[in-house]
Amino acid sequence: MKPLVVLLHGLARGHGSMAKLGAALRQAGFETFGRTYPSRRHSISYLADEVTEWIVERAGERPVCAVTHSMGGVIVRHLHDPRIHWHRIVMLAPPNRGSQLAAGLAANPVFRWYYGPAGAELADGSQWPAPPAPFAVIAGTRSRALTNVTSWTMGRRFPAGTPNDGTVAVEETNLDGMSAYAEVDATHTWIMNDARVQRLLVSFLQDGVFPRQLPG
Questions:
Q1: Which of 29, 79, 143, 167 gets the highest tally of CB atoms within 10 A of its CB?
Q2: Is residue 77 a contact partner of residue 107, using CB atoms and an 8 Å limit?
Q3: Residue 171: is its pLDDT beyond 50?
Q4: For 163-186, what is the mean pLDDT?
């Protein structure tokens, strides 16, 4: 059976943010499934339980892949339900080690009000489980971009010389056990729409590796 590719958006986003990526995946022959989860209203564990039920209902016995953006990568790490038959996962700009920006703002009442319990939980990733399948990580390195408002506000909190995508530091994306890793000149907010990123993730979903030469 061909795998179903689940698209998991980031914090304070919706499934529409993954629409162009979904179209690229379908053009490459994949079937995709995306749905907006209430990222600002609940804890990570609650959201993981809700997303689990959606995947089980949609995928049934089919193998499942996932492409995640930002906090979606944290959610997928909590999806270890045996009813999901995992195949491969690609994480785009995931705060795998926790987010220093979230850590610096977790006590701010405005931050907690807007980003909710899951946003505060992003401050510390030390207790999160490993992903439930072989996984690849793609990090963005464009720290300033007009299309990423965060890069001009909270992104200024990164110490000088810290490679980042305007929201997540490159180092924060790294996680032991990665099957493949790449850095791309893309900003956090729209990394999923970058053509190089799309070619890389299609390669991993198909073959379990990135191409030897990164796409230009």
A1: 167
A2: no
A3: yes
A4: 96
Predicted TM-score of the model (pTM): 0.92
Out of 56-70, 122-136, 149-163, pick the least confident: 149-163
Beta bridge partner(s), residue 136? 90, 180
Cα separation of 8 and 174, whole Å? 19
User: What would the two tokens of residue 40 be?
Assistant: 């600002």
pLDDT number for residue 5: 98
Name the β-bridge partners of 91.
68, 137
Helices (H), the chain: 19-27, 44-59, 71-77, 100-105, 109-121, 149-152, 170-173, 195-207
**pLDDT of res. 158:** 76
183 in any annotated domain: yes
Q: What is the mean pLDDT of the chain?
A: 91
Does any domain span residue 56? yes
Q: How many domains does the chain have?
A: 1
- In a domain? residue 212: no
How far apart (Å, rounded) are the C-alpha atoms in residues 196 and 198? 5
Alpha carbons 104 and 115: distance in angstroms, whole number: 14
213 within a domain of the structure (yes/no): no
Q: How far apart are CA 107 and CA 102, in angstroms?
A: 9
Sign of CA pseudo-dihedral 94, 98, 104, 110: positive
CB 93 within 8 A of CB 168: yes
- Tokens 């564990």 correspond to 45
81: domain range? 4-207
Two tokens, residue 7: 């698209």
